[in-house]
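Sequence only, no structure available. Ideas?
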Amino acid sequence: MGATVTLADWGHRQRVREVLALVAVLGVCACKKKVEEEEAPAPPRNQATLDIVATEIGTGLALRASVAPTSVHWQRVVVLDAERAVLFGRENDEAWALRTSDRGRTWTSVNALAKPWAAWGVSSLGALTLTSGTSQRPKVTTVKGQADARPKADGPVNDGLVWYAGANDRQLNGPRALFPGEGGLAGLSLPTTTAAPALFDDTIALLGEKNRTPTMIFAPIALNATLEPLPLEKAAFASAPYGRPPKLLSVAKGSIELRDWPKLGAPPGVATPIPNYRSDSTTLQQLSEGPSCEFGAFSFRLFPSPQPWVVGVSGDRALAFKVPAPNSTRLGCSEDALVLETEVLDSNDVEKRRKVPQLIRCGLDGTCTQPKAPPFAMWKEKHERELWSVPTQRGLVAILRARSATRWGLYLGQSSDGGKTFELPRTIGEGLGTRRVLEFGALIRFPTRLVLLISADVGSTGRRGWYALASDDDGNNWGPP
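Reply:
I predicted one. C-alpha cells follow.
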C-alpha cells in the first residue's frame, strides 16, 4: 500500500529542496568569489593597490592610509627591543612619530602642530614626549637701518609646550606649558637647534641655561603643574641625552664625561670619563646634535673629523674607538656592530677622478672590515644619491636611492660574509620621469628581522601610500611583514 503524501508534507519537502538549491548556488558563488580573489591581478611594477605594492624584490603590505602622510621625512629611527621601534619625522609644521610593537606588521602614529623648534624624547618602554616652542629673534641692525629677522640658534625662549603619550596611547596628551610661569622665563635660553628631552617614569627633563648657568628644566607627566628648574654646576654639557636610561654628557679636560641625567629632586651623578676618546673643539657641538644611531640601550655618535671616532653610550656601558674616515654622519647600528659610509675611487673611471660610496662594517670592539669592492655600481650620468645601511647577523644590507634629470632607481646591496664582499645589487624599482616612483622611507634593523618602509603611487587614484616589506633571513628574501 503506497504512502499518502499530504499537502503539508509536500510543502515541507518543497521548502527543503529550495533551501538546498540556494545553498548550492551560494556555494558556487563563494567558490567563484574565492577564485576571483585568488586570481586578482597584481599591481603593475612600481605601483600599488590599497593593500599591497609590487617591487622587484617582493611584495609589500600597506600601512593604514591615515597613519602618516608620505611627505613626512623620517629623520630618526630608534629600535627599542626585539619587537618595538619608533620613527620620528616632520612635515611642515607638524611633528610625527610612527610606532610598531610587532616588528613592523602593524603601525600607529601620533602627531602634533609644532612650533619652530621641536624635539622628541622616547623611554626604553616606548613612551614618547614632544617639546616645542619659539625663541626670540635677534635684532641685528643692517646698513639700511632695518632689523634682520634671521633666527638665533641659542636665544631666550618666548614659550614652550610639552606633549606626552604612554607606550600604548594612541594620541598625545597636551599641549601644556613646559616652562615655569612668566617670571621663570627671565634669563632662560635653550640651544633650540639641538636641545632634546629626556623621559622618565614621572617627569620630562630638558637642559637649558638660565643667567648663563646650566639649568635642568622639569615637566611632570601626571600633573598639570610646573616644577622649579635645577641649577647645575658650571660645565660644557651636551644638550641631547644619550642611552637608555639617559646619560648627560659633557666635555672637559680633553675627554667626554658622562653622568646620570638628573631626575627631579636629585643632582647629576658623578662624572666618569669615556675611555680612550680625546675631545677637540668640535666635540661638544657634535654631541649636542644628538646620536647618529640608536639601538636598544645604546646611543652611538659618529665624529667624522678631524680624527674619525665612534662613541657609544648605554645605561651601564660606554665605549670609543677610531674608524675609517666617513663622508657622512649617517650610521647603521645593532647590538654588536656598526656600518658607516666612506668613499673610494671608482675602478671603472679611466681618469681615476670619480669617487663612489663604500660601506665599512665595524664590531663594537673597534675591528673594522675593509671590503674588496664597493656595494653598488654608480650611474655614469650626473645624479644625486643617498645611501642607508644596517648591520645584519652575517654582514650588512644597504639601500641606494639614485635620481637624475631623467630617471630614478632604488637598489638593495647585501653582504653575507661580515662585509668582506658584496653580492650583485638587486633592483627594488626603477623607471623614467617622475611617475610611479618608489620612494625610500626607512630601513629598520630588529634583532631577527629587517623592515623596509617605502612609499608608492596607489593605482590611478592620484595619491600615495606607505608600504612595509620584511626579511627574516638577513635580506635574502622579502615579503609582507
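Helices lie at 7-38, 283-288.
Hope that gets you unstuck.
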